[in-house]
Amino acid sequence: MALLSKPNEKTESGFSPIPVIDISDPESKHALVKACEDFGFFKVINHGVSSELVSVLEHEAVEFFSLPASDKTQVAGYPFGYGNREIGRNGDVGWVEYLLMNANLDFGSHSFFPGLFNNPETFRNALLEYTTSVRKMTSHVLEMITDGLGIEPRNTLSKLVSDKNTDSIFRLNHYPPCPHHINTNTNTNGDNNVIGFGEHTDPQIISVLRSNNTSGLQINLADGSWISVPSDPSSFFFNVGDSLQVLTNGKFKSVKHRVLANSRKSRVSMIYFAGPSLTQRIAPLSCLTDNEDESLYKEFTWSEYKNYAYHSRLSDNRLQPFERKAVKISLNYS
């Protein structure tokens, strides 16, 4: 039976409204659609991804982030490679260090594997197996969503992220413990919590997150309030990206989210950003609109949107330039 929420999960202010979906149940397709409409975010259980595989990758990630800064900066780069504090090149900063990789490359081609890891082959194999498993799970979830929307064929969405030429990204984030008393140059929110990763939406189609047992992730609700996402290292969290919002003509909402630093414990997260090929054209699906006039967005290629996103700030509304302007019709009355 599909689950929309579990009563024993709490945020700091009470029970969590975040949908929990059993993706082993085909009837969960309707719960998935509702979660995408209401939250743009959901947690999946019974996902079939090996917990041992996840543990191996997390261990290797912790080993990497434990290296001296001088070693890690040897593989600094943009857009792929190691980064610390600086997020992108447009002025955003956070209490985070990360390793960003192209998920569709042969991981053996990454120059930082030899020399920086005690067991580079272990890390390489774990990355390959993990991204393969998560890609398969992502395709399954997208096909369930397509079923829930009543769209044929059922691979209408999944084919966009399963082709060998897709532009998907894999990111490892490490949020070190952050003291409560910090200098005034550190980015904070209105409650003086230190921002690990500032509020933003993801530009891709859908993102898949897994983290250790340290909380920090928050999502923004429709009423503008922020709620904390209870950590659960045994599950995966999905969030709707900008491109899926466009493909569904606004039916699904790209969720704004952020990470707050923890004062006592490190947080390690791994995110698979499922993107289409660079030449893929993104526009509202014709089966979800009666005619072109109902389309809320202009057509664009993923390459065009990605380029725009990379030149914007995290908190910018990146879809705004691609929205169709409302047409005002003047009526003459006799």
TrEMBL record:
Q: Where is the Fe2OG dioxygenase domain?
A: 165-276
Top-rank taxon, per record: Eukaryota
- Keywords, alphabetical: Iron, Metal-binding, Oxidoreductase
Q: Name one Pfam family in it.
A: DIOX_N
InterPro entries, sorted: DIOX_N (IPR026992), IPNS-like_FE2OG_OXY (IPR044861), IPNS-like_sf (IPR027443), Iron_ascorbate_oxido_reductase (IPR050231), Oxoglu/Fe-dep_dioxygenase_dom (IPR005123)
PROSITE patterns cross-referenced by the UniProt entry: FE2OG_OXY
Per the similarity annotation, which family is this?
A: Belongs to the iron/ascorbate-dependent oxidoreductase family.
Q: Provide the protein name.
A: Fe2OG dioxygenase domain-containing protein
**Naturally occurring in which organism (per UniProt):** Brassica napus
